[in-house]
């Protein structure tokens, strides 16, 4: 299968400056956090007033455009613009790829930019110390395996059908997540909660130095110091799905760990992303190996006589008070402005510990239902990757 440079197969997009428009007008804005990296769909587009437009709100998109994130660790944050977002504005953190319909099928292209081969190429090309990224030029210089248009459509249809099976499993998992959300709202957002003390995260953390911490900054930990095995290093990708998961593996040597030991994460610590895609949250699992966190994460060790990690995780993601606080205090667009000070001051309506324990037990029951669906999805994902690999080698 021949390969063609992507730039020869796409149409340039228009840009605009919302700051020069009527301040009373608003527009739909898609930033990096709006893309669900698992489903590869846009789930968080929002209306933004021209007077408050982020500096990266520039690119005018059309339905069918493919958005390719250019900022690591979101390089697998790709999505197709749906009809409902036709005419929206995308962040310059995306390379907007608009296929020439006479040369390139949009669904075929979408499957290509979701492939491990394409994403792996972008990861290798990413440069920069604080926020490794690729340029639009690098994205468009990549070479896509290209067959005649009818063959592209045939391949895309096969991959679409396989993807639909994965979507059904995700729907089942989403329903279980919604059940858990409903339980949380019922238990912690009732009139009774108004009688609970309002505390801060700082006051419910362990009362010892470093109980709320970010990872090593600047020259303390360089990208060049990562090795193939050793002590694990946790980053945004481990928490971006709002559940802890292993994605990209990074390690440091035992010697380097001894220098950075104060950044060690422990089972039950709560991780909050504070750079890149910020505001995501996960609980460190009990079986975590020895590991530290990067500067992109805020790590919280709780006083479990006051607050359970599973409760704080759900509170941070679901409670209206927490959501309103984060919307009011977070700043910026891609490089959002969460920091340790804001997290320490986040107000928490603290329920009795027994109620928290009851919530955790109910969540564990849901997890038992969730596990077989998650295992089936993992198997489907693996089979899909194999099918995708064959498709772009011309073997379907």
Going by CATH, the architecture of the largest domain would be Alpha-Beta Complex
Mean pLDDT, nearest integer? 91
Q: Give the distance, in angstroms, between the N- and C-terminal Cα atoms.
A: 12 Å
Number of domains: 3
- Report strand %: 15-25%
Strand order of the largest sheet: 2-11-8-9
- Largest sheet features: 4 strands, antiparallel
- Find the CATH superfamily of the largest domain: DNA methylase specificity domains
Query: In which range does the helix fraction lie?
Result: 25-40%
Question: Can you put this structure into words, describing what you see?
Answer:
There is one protein chain. This protein is of the alpha+beta class and 396 residues long. It folds into three domains: 2-146, Alpha-Beta Complex (Adenine-n6-DNA-methyltransferase TaqI, Chain A, domain 2); 149-191 and 359-396; 197-350, DNA methylase specificity domains (Adenine-n6-DNA-methyltransferase TaqI, Chain A, domain 2, Alpha-Beta Complex), CATH 3.90.220. 35% of the residues lie in helices and 18% in strands. It contains ten helices and 21 strands. The chain has helices spanning 106-113, 116-125, 136-141, 149-188, 201-204, 254-259, 309-318, 320-329, 340-344, 353-391; strands at residues 2-5, 10-11, 26-30, 35-36, 41-42, 46-49, 57-60, 66-69, 78-80, 89-91, 94-99, 143-146, 198-200, 212-214, 231-234, 251-252, 270-273, 281-283, 291-293, 297-300, 347-349. Strands 2-11-8-9 form a four-stranded antiparallel sheet. Strands 6-3-10-7 form a four-stranded mixed sheet, with no helix packed on it. It is globular, with a radius of gyration of 22 Å. The model has no long low-confidence stretch (mean pLDDT 91).
């Amino acid at each position: 299968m021949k390969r063609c440079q992507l730039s020869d197969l796409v149409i340039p997009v228009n840009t605009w400056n919302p700051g020069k428009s009527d301040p009373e007008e608003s527009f739909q804005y898609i930033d990096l956090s709006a893309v669900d990296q698992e489903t590869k769909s846009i789930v968080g587009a929002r209306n933004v007033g021209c007077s408050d437009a982020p500096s990266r709100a520039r690119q005018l998109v059309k339905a069918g455009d493919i958005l390719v994130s250019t900022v690591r660790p979101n390089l697998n944050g790709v999505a197709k613009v749906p009809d409902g977002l036709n005419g929206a504005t995308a962040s310059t953190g995306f390379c907007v790829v608009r296929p020439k319909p006479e040369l390139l099928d949009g669904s075929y292209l979408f499957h290509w930019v979701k492939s491990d081969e394409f994403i792996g190429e972008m990861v290798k090309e990413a440069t920069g110390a604080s926020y490794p990224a690729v340029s639009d030029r690098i994205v468009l210089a990549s070479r896509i395996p290209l067959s005649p248009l009818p063959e592209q459509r045939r391949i895309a249809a096969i991959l679409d059908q396989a993807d639909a099976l994965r979507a059904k499993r995700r729907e089942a998992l989403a329903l279980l997540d919604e059940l858990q959300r409903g339980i949380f709202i019922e238990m912690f957002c009732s009139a009774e909660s108004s009688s609970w003390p309002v505390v801060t995260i700082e006051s419910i953390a362990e009362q010892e130095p470093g109980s709320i911490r970010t990872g090593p900054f600047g020259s303390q930990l360089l990208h060049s110091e990562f090795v193939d095995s050793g002590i694990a290093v946790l980053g945004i990708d481990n928490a971006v799905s709002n559940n802890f998961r292993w994605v990209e593996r990074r390690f440091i040597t035992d010697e380097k760990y001894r220098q950075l030991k104060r950044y060690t994460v422990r089972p039950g610590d709560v991780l909050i992303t504070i750079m890149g895609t910020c505001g995501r949250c996960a609980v460190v699992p009990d079986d975590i190996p020895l590991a530290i966190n990067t500067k992109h994460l805020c790590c919280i060790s709780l006083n479990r006589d006051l607050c359970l990690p599973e409760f704080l995780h759900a509170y941070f993601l679901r409670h209206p008070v927490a959501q309103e606080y984060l919307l009011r205090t977070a700043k910026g667009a891609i490089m959002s402005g969460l920091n340790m000070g804001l997290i320490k001051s986040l107000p928490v309506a603290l329920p009795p510990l027994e109620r928290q324990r009851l919530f955790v037990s109910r969540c564990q029951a849901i997890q038992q239902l969730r596990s077989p669906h998650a295992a089936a999805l993992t198997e489907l994902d693996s089979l899909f990757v194999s099918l995708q690999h064959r498709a772009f080698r011309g073997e379907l």
